[in-house]
Amino acid sequence: MYRTHHCGALRISDVGSEVTLSGWNQASRDFGGLTFVDLRDRYGITQLVFNIEDDKVLAEQAGKLGREFVLKVTGVVRERSNKNPNRPTGDIEIEVKTLEILNGSKTPPFTIEDETDGGDDLRMKYRYLDMRRAPVRDNLIFRSKLAIETRKYLSDSEFVEVETPFLIKSTPEGARDFVVPSRMNPGQFYALPQSPQTFKQLLMVAGMDRYFQIVKCFRDEDLRADRQPEFTQIDCEMAFVTRDEILDTFEGLTKHLFKQTLSIDLPDFPKMSYDDAMSRYGSDKPDTRFGMEFVEMNEFTQNQGFNVFDSAELVVGIVAKGIAADYSNKDLNKLTDWMKRPQIGAKGLVYVKCNEDGSFKSTVGKFFDDAALQNWADKMGAEKGDIIFALSGEKDKTRKQLNELRLEMGRKMGLMDPKQFNPLWVVDFPLLEWDEDSNRFHAMHHPFTAPKKEDEQRMLTGDHETMKSLRADAYDLVINGVEIGGGSIRIHDRDLQSKNFDLLGFSKEEAEEQFGFLLGAFEYGAPPHGGIAFGFDRLCAVLNGVNSIRDFIAFPKNNQGRDMMIDTPSRIDDEQLKELNLDVTVAEKE
Amino acid sequence: MYRTHHCGALRISDVGSEVTLSGWNQASRDFGGLTFVDLRDRYGITQLVFNIEDDKVLAEQAGKLGREFVLKVTGVVRERSNKNPNRPTGDIEIEVKTLEILNGSKTPPFTIEDETDGGDDLRMKYRYLDMRRAPVRDNLIFRSKLAIETRKYLSDSEFVEVETPFLIKSTPEGARDFVVPSRMNPGQFYALPQSPQTFKQLLMVAGMDRYFQIVKCFRDEDLRADRQPEFTQIDCEMAFVTRDEILDTFEGLTKHLFKQTLSIDLPDFPKMSYDDAMSRYGSDKPDTRFGMEFVEMNEFTQNQGFNVFDSAELVVGIVAKGIAADYSNKDLNKLTDWMKRPQIGAKGLVYVKCNEDGSFKSTVGKFFDDAALQNWADKMGAEKGDIIFALSGEKDKTRKQLNELRLEMGRKMGLMDPKQFNPLWVVDFPLLEWDEDSNRFHAMHHPFTAPKKEDEQRMLTGDHETMKSLRADAYDLVINGVEIGGGSIRIHDRDLQSKNFDLLGFSKEEAEEQFGFLLGAFEYGAPPHGGIAFGFDRLCAVLNGVNSIRDFIAFPKNNQGRDMMIDTPSRIDDEQLKELNLDVTVAEKE
Fold it and tell me: How far apart, in whole angstroms, are the C-alpha atoms of residue B205 and residue B203?
């Protein structure tokens, strides 16, 4: 037997017991004829002590133990004279009688401490050492707990977890699929699922009533910092259900998860329409931890001789409270440059400093006198000490730019408290987006999303312009500016579905080719249904107030889609290619 | 709102309530001015009644409802005059006030009844209709419950569920991999995991201590009736653990699952060595629900003039109790033919009928007189009315053949009670199998399996013959002749691992190329560890006393690896192939 207790288990009440522990040598030090070793496992750290007067050979052996050596010790628990109140086992230590080195270790390439000296690449390559660090380990344990609580809540709500297949059919819609060549069906391929969307709808046709799954999904997209080629979803679908029943259910899930993992009672989630979110925050995922809401300024800024504003579809601004004294002209110029970067693309940034003495300092002082600026301030609720920022131009683009500025100011001003959680539902998204380039509509959510009930007739009978104003019965859950999940009520009526495919530019044949099995299923008594999917990796990150999903993935890939630890992807044997009836058309790079 | 209750919810205590139900029209019938409709959902069936005297239009509408139409009704619960005690809702019916047809349905291609008229292929193509049938639905709900209970038990035992990656590295060992071409790394491929074996060992090196995952695995093998290209494992690994601690933990899991799903208390699981299993049952997964154990007959059958026996390495038999009177010569000849089929390949079958009158009737009567046969009977515990079956030849082959006969007789004689569950651990497997064809050893389990502690020295220092006798610290859980799971203690010592790779014919370079990342990890303080994996699909099947895992998979593939419902795999666009730097070398078949 390797242990009677974990390294986090022993307390003052165990003093006098003979115990066996196993773990890693976190650190050792000699002090006045004693050798101390911190023995670490997943559960904690226990101090071992070797006394040179009791057993010289043993104490000398202990003095030579390398970091991360794997040890098994037997000894007696005794009270520490010098207690460590920061450690649950800090009242005791083990007076070691026997020591067995279970395995040696090379010196790790970085320190196994909460704060390590290892860079990102090194830690990814030696992920198995990185994971010995408490923050990484705790993230993975947190993730496991979050999955357990998710399953508990959904099972208690009569959801059945059904495993949908991974080897499915490639469809040209949506993101790019990863494909899997089939050996038994030469020249043919499976695709890995981007989501179990069609299967969960089939499960509703099948009468499964309430389905969920915590499931891996795959997208072959160019990777950004916060994207992974494989990621995990909490995927759900319900039949005979209205939108609000779905929102209530998953608001309940979210509250349950916050309560169980963080002991936080979330308030009821407000609902905000997409239109409201865009006009108040310039974003369909507003961070509502702080105000700084958009004020539309056209009315009191246009037709006053400033051509830039006069020619703009929208003039819109925000008020940053109490920072006028802190922001020099240089700071404000830097901010203007930041807004002009290609990622944001603002042409300029108008600001008005509301000085403590009642005067104003503004980039547009030439066009607006103090009285005019005082009028701005009054209309916008700006006071002495505040700064007004304003942008102008085409509506959608300007709102997006001002959203970036609002978030940047929120960060700079410390308004994004990581301990505060502001959830909200964003609802009533547009059903269709008109794409000028391809001269067609795209589904804002996906091709099975239903229009709102009250828009159905307009959809079936309206003209082209009408289609642009249709609202989808779709919804997103947003927490602190992060989209945690989204879903919709689905179309279960064949006529409405045909109309939708028409609008999306599918011919009958294309629709049949790609979605025939689902459309076929809809002929046999499809119930009204709808669902939602949460990004599980992102949910982990948001609950912990961090941005990177990578911290919550055991073995993540880098931005080139590579696993640095196992060094994959890699070449495969010619024999394998031959069996798959494939040729590779590029030479090997060395 | 679509419903106030499910179709399985209402009872006599609800009489008088106004309710709303939604579901499918299971069946309707007219009877004396009344129309009855059975409304079905996942939870049950509720009888609706429409009275032509109350509302003629409504009743006539109800009379015309097609099977599987999706309905929403509102009405009042009332007591049935003609109660149905076989249905939980059988005491009540709904007097319908309003009826809404939520969706129509074409006539299903087979009946949606527990016993359907649909063949396998049709049911697979319309799996979403097949699933509306109670037996299929209940299997999937059972599976969900089994997963929940598995997670509950393992979480309560401090296991952490960690998601390991699906896009990993192809290795030539084991079964064939499914591969996934990487667009971002031209000419390179990921592989889908056959199991998370190396990752779970890395998690032990990482100090995760106790890992589990219910996870999809993939094998590109030629499919047999009971194989699927994607299947699910309960995958586990533990550090600082002995074999018996692992067996106790997973015996505990198995007992928990039987208790929670079937209310069965399993007895403690016996352990049987591989050698014992082979000599007593001719199988490493013996069905111990019945005896009919092997008796080795060399001692009392050889050197008595029957050359076939005399030249055989092994003469071995079984006693089938009490069937002598039931088996005519014709029956026994048929059985002999069955044994001679190429799948089994016996050269013949010796039998001895022990007649009620004390005489014997035997295929080898020419060589053995009644006194000799009486001696067989005495030695083998055969009595009047029994039949002795015997085979002879090379030891391993003969045992395998007799195992087939034993199982066949068990089936024929009704000895395999599907309500009885006989679990056992088979332990002490050989570490290595010598393969004459390739003139090398194969790992019986996998290349990381440790030899038993007491065999380590012999492994490091022994000669070629010694290697054949090494035993692995490996174990299988067998229930009713089905291997539910298996695992082993792993090698955590670099020297032992090198020796094992040597024996398995890996050069240093090959070992490095394929397993470098794991061997590298083992340099940094690998703890002693071991684990196990259960076949989750098979576990579902065994608990339900059936053979086919397909019954417990929502969307299975057929023997050609095709999903008949979504018609995949399929061709992909040339554009997609080009992005992946691939050419297909076979023409499309139409």
Answer: 5
